[in-house]
Structures are given as structure tokens and as C-alpha cells.
Amino acid sequence: MPVVSTHRDDQALTLTVVSEFPASVDRVWRIWQDPRQVERWWGPPTWPATVDRYEFEAGGQVRYHMTGPDGEKARGWWTITAIDPPHRLEFDDGFAGEDGEPLPTDVPTHAVVTLEATDTGTRMTLVSHFASTDHLDQILAMGAAEGLREALGQVDLLLADAST
């Protein structure tokens, strides 16, 4: 399992997940850059993701949905707020309605992804920033930390696939 730590910080209103991968920073960056690769890991194994729109640039819009074991769909969105390839990506992340667009009542999180080289590959740190303790509690109660851990558990197989 590539996740090495998960830390909730109630003072900073953040959830930090640190993962390590036996691949170069450039290779790990591609799991974010390529929508077909995002689909192979963004959702947990029982809720695979499908990317419907992917504009990988500052200001770009991403629309996706995850399909559950019974066929139900959970829709989400990102607005990419900053990119510094191949080391940093920032985006707002939230829930979407049936049309794939952000729900007007949704409170998004702000995610900051950093990639840094290590002696054995790459350390990826994902920090999610929340609007309040209630918001953090709500998202964690939905199983977000476990889902992210499961999703990241799929990355090693993706990185080992020579066709990607």
C-alpha cells in the first residue's frame, strides 16, 4: 500500500495524505495529467471513475463521475487553480448534480498536491483544505479518507503498466 500516513489537523482544517511510489516524479505526474490514467485510480476499486471533461490547465474544468457497485453514480468536479509541472497541482473539488455541474449548495475543498523525488521514487503529498470543522467531519463521515487510501492503492499497478 503506497499510503504512508494520513493526518487530520483540526486547527488547520486539513487532511493530509502522504504516499510513496517507486517511480519518477515525471511518471507520477502523468497519473494526474492524463484523464485515462485518472480514471484508473481516482475512485476506490468499488467506485471507479469516468472522466467526462478534462481541461488540465490553470482555470481548467474537470467533470467526472464514479459508478458504485449497484450502478449508482456520484458526480464530482474540479476547478484547477494552479499547476507547476511536474511538482505541484492545486484544485477546488466538490460534488456535482446530475448535469455534472457543481451543486450550488456545495462547499468545495481545496486540494494541494506536491510531488518530490526520494531515494526510492516519489513522495506525493495531498493536502485537502476544508471550510470548517463541520465540513471536515462531514466529508470524513462519508468515508473520504478510506476511499482515498483505496484509490491510491491502485496507483502502483498503474505505474507498473508499461503502456501508460
SSE topology:
Layout: E1 3-9, E2 14-21, H1 25-33, H2 35-39, E3 49-54, E4 61-67, E5 73-84, E6 88-95, E7 109-118, E8 121-129, H3 133-141, H4 144-152, H5 155-160
Antiparallel strand pairs: 1-2, 2-8, 3-4, 4-5, 5-6, 6-7, 7-8
Domain Activator of Hsp90 ATPase homologue 1/2-like C-terminal: 23-156
Protein name: Polyketide cyclase
Family: Belongs to the AHA1 family.
Question: How much helix is in the residues?
Answer: 10-25%
Radius of gyration: 15 Å
The secondary-structure class comes to alpha+beta
Shape: globular
In the CATH hierarchy, the third-tier topology is known as: Alpha-D-Glucose-1,6-Bisphosphate, Chain A, domain 4
Number of helices: 5
Distance between the termini: 20 Å
Could you list the spans in which at least 5 consecutive residues all have pLDDT below 50?
none
| CATH class identity | Alpha Beta
Mean pLDDT over the residues: 94
CATH superfamily: START domain
Tell me the strand order in the biggest sheet.
1-2-8-7-6-5-4-3
Order of helices and strands: EEHHEEEEEEHHH
Strand content: 35-45%
Oligomer: single chain
Q: Into how many domains do the coordinates divide?
A: 1
The number of strands is 8
Family: Belongs to the AHA1 family.
Organism: Micromonospora rosaria
Protein name: Polyketide cyclase
InterPro entries: ASHA1/2-like_C, START-like_dom_sf
